[in-house]
Amino acid sequence: MATTTGFLPTVEAEVAAARRFVSLLELEQEMLTKGEVDHLLALVQQKNELALTLATLAEQRHQALAAEGLKADRLGVSAWFAAHPTASRARAAWSSLLSIASQARELNRLNGELIQMRMQHNAQALEALLGTHNALGLYGPDGQNTLPSGPRISDSA
């Protein structure tokens, strides 16, 4: 069997990229929590670029496993570790990668909830400003009350 040369550096590179991705997710969460949304577009671009890097590294890992005749899944990784029992550094890197990926999933889920809350808040504010539900009894641009009503007394006079 081949040595750990292809698998280990790829997983270590994945760990480094995943840590950077988690940092971006944490920054995104901070921005969303504080309402500092002005720089979110640039952050999304960085996240997308890093996601592409992570996908490329995952493909390299899959190729390293395939080079040893293993599947590109958890069973393949388990088989790789069984074939390389002394690869403690690779095992530690893989464990770190799984932990960081779990952290990233949770941060992404929470950020999605924060975004949803912000969107609901913005929609409610817009409804209040535009009077789309007429719930606030605001006045329209003509100075008339926007509450739905039947014919006015003055309309029949």
From TrEMBL:
Lineage per the UniProt record: Bacteria, Pseudomonadati, Pseudomonadota, Betaproteobacteria, Candidatus Accumulibacter
Task: Give the source's domain of life in one word.
Answer: Bacteria
Chain ranges passing through the membrane: none
Family assignment from sequence similarity: Belongs to the FlgN family.
Q: Which organism is it from?
A: Candidatus Accumulibacter contiguus
Functionally, this protein is described as follows: Required for the efficient initiation of filament assembly.
Keywords of this entry: Bacterial flagellum biogenesis, Cell projection, Cilium, Flagellum
Q: What is this protein called?
A: Flagellar protein FlgN
- Whether S-adenosyl-L-methionine counts among this entry's keywords is no
